Amino acid sequence: MYHRPVCKKCETELKPEKNDIRLVDTFQDPPQPCKIWSADLWKCPGCGYEVVVGFGQGAIMEHWEDGFAGYLERCQRGTVIYNTERRCMNGKAFEDK
To answer: Which end is more exposed in the chain, N or C (fewer Cβ atoms within 10 Å of the end residue's Cβ)?
Structure first.
């Protein structure tokens, strides 16, 4: 059974704000795009908190695939959210260097 996301602060269900957005995972310092996902943006009607949920089972495209740069550029016409990895491989935050 499925349950909508709930806002902890407002104690109310979030509502779909926009379906089929693109989320771009990044890696390295400075951040570089590595995977593109399809997902949905949900928003709390009370406080405006937003969260990205509803990912598919796999990324749409990864950085090593032909056409990645072109697809990423075309994605910019719609809603794109970047998931910027803030930790490097040794576990220290980039800002801690």
So the answer is: N
In a domain, 79, yes or no: yes
The pLDDT averaged over each successive group of 10 residues in the chain (97 residues) is 89 95 90 94 96 92 95 94 68 48
Asked whether residue 60 is assigned to any structural domain, the reply reads yes
In this structure, are residues 14 and 49 in contact, taking their beta carbons and an 8 Å threshold? yes
24 vs 48, 76, 78, CA distance in Å?
22, 11, 13
Burial of 12 (0-12, 13-18, 19+ CB in 10 A): middle
62 lies in some domain? yes
Q: Give the 3-state secondary structure of residue 49.
A: coil
Q: Give a yes or no: residue 97 inside a domain.
A: no
